[in-house]
Amino acid sequence: MSRTLLNEGWSFRSTVSAFAELGGATSEWADVCLPHDALIGQPRAADAPGGAASGYFPSGAFEYRTTLTPAATDEGKQIFLEFDGVHRDAMVYVNGALAGQHAFGYSRFLIRVDPYLRFGTTNEVRVSCVAHKDSRWYTGAGIYRDVHLIVKNPVHITNDGVRFVTENIESDRALVELVAEVANDGLTTVTADLLTFVTEGGVAEVASASSPITLLPGASGTVRQTLHVAQPALWSPDSPALYEGTVQVRLDARVIDEESVTFGIRRIQVDAQKGLRINGSPVKLRGACVHHDNGPLGAVALAAAEERKVRLLREAGFNAVRSSHNPAGSSFLAACDRLGMMVLDETFDMWTSNKTDFDYATDFAQWWERDIEALVAKDVNHPSVIAYSIGNEIPETGTAFGGVWSRRLAEKIRSLDRTRPITNGINGFVSSLDLVVAGMKDAAPQTSPGEGVNGMMTQAGDMMNQISASEMVTDRTRESFSVLDIAGMNYGDARYLLDRDLFPDRVILGTETFPGQMASNWQIVESNTHVIGDFVWTGWDYLGEAGLGSVTYGDGPAVAQGYPWLAASSGDIDITGTRRPSSFYREIVFGLRTEPYIAVGRPDRVGETPRRTPWSWSDTISSWSWGGFEGSALPVEVYADADEVELILNGVSHGRSPVGKARRLQADFEIPYQPGELLAVAYVGGMEV
Q: In this structure, is the dihedral angle defined by the CA atoms of residues 338, 343, 347 and 350, taken in order, positive or negative?
């Protein structure tokens, strides 16, 4: 087998049909290198169909083209194009003939192209795709992840046909099970040998095995081998050790196919009494929800950009990410493997009920099973993937038929992989949306005088939590939760302690939480074995849902902001990779930082009343350079795990403030600005720490 990266030699354009071209319409082709986002370079506009959700980017239909010149000697072999992600409704044509299609914009898929190729000459490949009001955030468009060309001999290892399973681990050895699927597309019966070699660090061979397999014409078979690895280096977040498994098919001592797979040796266990364990050691998930875009790059999934994102999240104190709300790309998972970042890989943002006009719900019933198969096939050898999520805020989870779908999806995954637990990001508010909407028609949220929209938004967050903890939601979501190994809860922290009594065996994970509640949530996580972690919305800011976490002043909308707003403004880390004050606060919450952190309110906004959303943080930055504002009293927040904080400006103390008065782990000051050095000193029991 050969596997070749096919990212160069492509061009793209806005789609123009042959009929439109007859009428004089034109669209110029532009050379591009994959991965590529066709949407990020398009002009934004206030009247874009997707509005704030899309970041005011337009909709569009696009097509890509390249050429293939297979050798004459390749005739009779199987040839595939593997796409790691095309958004969306991809149609793949070879020499004008439709070779295959794929509806979902986030799952990996293969298209067999050899029936349509002319060997020994040049062939044209075209890929068409569209993006139009099909998401609640910026999706990008086009071939935004890698493409590979795969060529296989008649006797070969099938696509995604190599799997290493590492459940049997002891202190001095690990039993690694290889499962390999081999096929014979030839015309005669063959007996081949399947050899497996496991190496550590790409050099030292630590285990090997060999098995014969006889295959009739047109048949396939499964080879299982057990490899003994002595003194195994186990994969964990703190020590992400990796092995490489090479599997060869030999016929008459000649290698006719070969696959190499990177994997890790580790075991996952989870229950309500002992919580989550990796290799027997308790682990709490310090989690970040992340979307797939890379900020200024758009949806482009460059391997270096994916690794940078994972590295910066890791450096900020996170040890886990949730791929919100779609399967992560292969490059992202490979980076997580190397850097010790645990992953909840998520399937869908919708099942059978649309959230936007033209989203995946229209295709779900026809495609869900194939997309779950693609998810597991992609993930199964990645040690970083510790759990699957079958959905996000699915309205159907509050109905009996949603229970049916929950069971279908969960059992489908279990039929493919029993080594990883399954969760679902269930929002009790959304699961009861039909009753909530009916109730809201009769009663609008009440606010106290002077609270205005800020109070209304705070109440909205509180209301979600209260509804999630209601007896109504307990009853409506019972079946959907029951099919899961881990009960994922979005904005449902009011259930954490309640369910400890109602459902003693229920393992809970905060799959999506407000940033302002991180300290109280983490306190519950640390104090209760059945609550295994917290995933904030979000760890990294993203394009679209413009203004979700905004802090604004004066009149105007509280959440969705008008053009030219671009990003959600809701991440611990902004779209360029710069940490915001909330990130350092979180690091203190996690117990990973002892040094205080200083955040300063913007002087041009002093005296104005900020308008926040539940996804906002304070409008502060870490700077003491405010020329032109000398003498102005600036609000200063100091984050510290301490009893009190002293603030010293140019050697002069401005007194001590207690920590925790307005927010846990925060002391507040007002300091007249003057240039120089601002120093914070934290005290516990009167002693400097």
A: negative
